[in-house]
């Protein structure tokens, strides 16, 4: 795959709940995306239950580390509904149908979309949100920050004065 498609797919898998399938994929993720080795090495050495508990602690208790991109721009307002529609329309425009297992702005879904299509528009549009999430994950001291570091390194910088 040209470009960063492999990295985006690997990052998407790293940012989903670490179930048994995740553990089985770790060697492939480590090999395919060396930029993520800080995280994949940690995940390989961490007991499954501990890794799962850490994921829940980092991503499920507070919006402070939200993996939903429109939350960063719209919060819990009416505008968020229109943002979610835009994500779904973008997927459809590329011949993909979103399954509704997660909201369409879920970062792993957006990364998988970018991996499949090469379209990084939504990642670029939400660059400021990704930078904030990366900064908060770093401050929290979680290895998930490494995943955001790698993704953000592939994107153009956020425009000056961009709002979170």
From TrEMBL:
Superkingdom: Bacteria
SUPFAM superfamilies (UniProt xref): TorD-like (SSF89155)
Keyword entries, A-Z: Nitrate assimilation
One Pfam family, short name: Nitrate_red_del
Tagged with keyword rRNA-binding: no
PANTHER family documented for this protein: NITRATE REDUCTASE MOLYBDENUM COFACTOR ASSEMBLY CHAPERONE (PTHR43680), NITRATE REDUCTASE MOLYBDENUM COFACTOR ASSEMBLY CHAPERONE NARJ (PTHR43680:SF2)
Protein name: Nitrate reductase molybdenum cofactor assembly chaperone
Organism, as annotated: Streptomyces thinghirensis
């Amino acid at each position: 795959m040209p470009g960063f498609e492999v990295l985006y797919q690997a990052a998407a898998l790293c940012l989903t709940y670490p179930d048994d399938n995740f553990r089985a994929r770790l060697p492939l993720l480590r090999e395919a995306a060396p930029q993520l080795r800080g995280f994949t090495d940690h995940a390989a050495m961490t007991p499954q239950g501990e890794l799962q508990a850490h994921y829940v602690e980092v991503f499920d208790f507070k919006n402070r580390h939200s993996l939903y991109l429109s939350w960063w721009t719209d919060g819990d307002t009416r505008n968020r509904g229109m943002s979610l529609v835009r994500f779904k329309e973008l997927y459809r425009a590329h011949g993909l149908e979103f399954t509704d297992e997660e909201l369409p702005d879920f970062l792993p879904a957006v990364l998988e979309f970018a991996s499949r299509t090469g379209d990084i528009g939504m990642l670029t549009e939400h660059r400021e949100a990704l930078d904030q999430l990366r900064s908060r994950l770093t401050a929290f001291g979680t290895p998930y920050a490494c995943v955001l570091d790698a993704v953000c390194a592939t994107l153009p910088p956020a425009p000056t004065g961009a709002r979170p």
